[in-house]
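Contributing: when you submit paired examples, paste them exactly as shown. First protein:
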Amino acid sequence: MKKCLIVTSFIDQMDQLIDDMDFFDKASFDCTIAADYGRVNCEKLGIRPDILIGDYDSSDRPPADQGAIVLPTHKDMTDTEAALDLAAEKGCRDITLLGGLGGRFDHTMGNLGMLAKFTDLTDHIELVDGENRVFMARPTGNQPDTDPPILVEKGRYTYLGMAAWTPTVTGLTSRGVAYPVTDFTLSSDTTRGACNEILPGQEARITFRTGKLMIIQSNDAR
């Protein structure tokens, strides 16, 4: 399974992410793509990108000898989506995006939409910045006692949130957390899934029947 790291133009908690880069095994990625200003963020993070892509409306165009893919400024997608499409074309099935959360809310919502889109096209995709890790899950099945659960380790993140991307997520069962639920229907118009916590020495075990579930890990209680 090919792994890809995409560095986006906006990383809200850059200083924190720089401090935490030791938890990334940068050598484990088969391909690193810098989207537009992500080229500058790569320099800050000590990452050497394999591919540069963007319209470069938020940074200087790279020198010609760096072989950047230059996109038109007026286009129907963001540079981040173009980078994701490129990763998918290259057969990458495990994708990590650095950044893409916070800042302009339309971009954040668009990037969450990309999670929904590429969750169906990849084995795993997540957004990571210095404060959050966000990924989306597909249904695990109809038998919560026997279906393999989604396992979420506590790691460096204290808090766990769940949100329905679809109107409802049905049959939601969670274990190993401070506020477990059993066969619960989580709707998209509630904060019920926010600010949970993985219990010490355990991992969250999550199953559900239908819908798309967004899982958010955070190291800030706000």
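Second protein:
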Amino acid sequence: MTGVPLPPAFFARPTATVARELLGALLISRAGGQLTGGVIVETEAYLGAHDPGSHASTKGITARNRVMYGPPGCVYVYFTYGSHHMLNLVTEAEGTAGAVLVRAIEPTIGARIMAGRRGGRTGPDVTNGPGKVAAALGIDLGHNGVTLGDEVAVYDAAGVGDDRVGASGRIGLSAGHDLPLRYFIVGNGYVSKGRTGPKPRTRRGGPRKKETA
């Protein structure tokens, strides 16, 4: 393992800054006693109560969003669509809500293990979406609130130059999708294929297909 684990101070900064600078970092999981991981190639920033797309956009702290309020450098995991876990990294000073969703990684460690966890899928389909990332790394609600550094860790790596970083609105939201808080490495094949813009509304005859996690 090369590189240095990112300290809590790295995460105790504005969420958008952390989301941008996580690109190129190495995300590691030791879930189930198996070492897996990859380079972070896509993230989304989620802010506090003023961000309509954030779980912190409530009247205060709730059982669901409590972990978002700190301390920085913790893992925030939630369950969505009835089948997908989503891996987030907590940011900002303790007491201020913020988290970065890891939307995609490029596998570099334990690729066969990750493919097996994803039902034998291969190539970008293993980890090119947030639900896929958590599944491939063996991340679930049992990791919610754990401190980075043991079972889940993020290692520093060579930074990604501005000429290789893209930004856009966020994906799969009914509100706040227009904020330019999604960051990705331009041209990387593991970046997710979800469309930015408003989440499709339910139509007569059943809901439209949701983004594949």
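If you have annotations for the second protein, write them as plain sentences, like these:
DSSP finds four helices and eight strands in the chain.
Helices lie at 8-11, 15-21, 111-117, 130-137.
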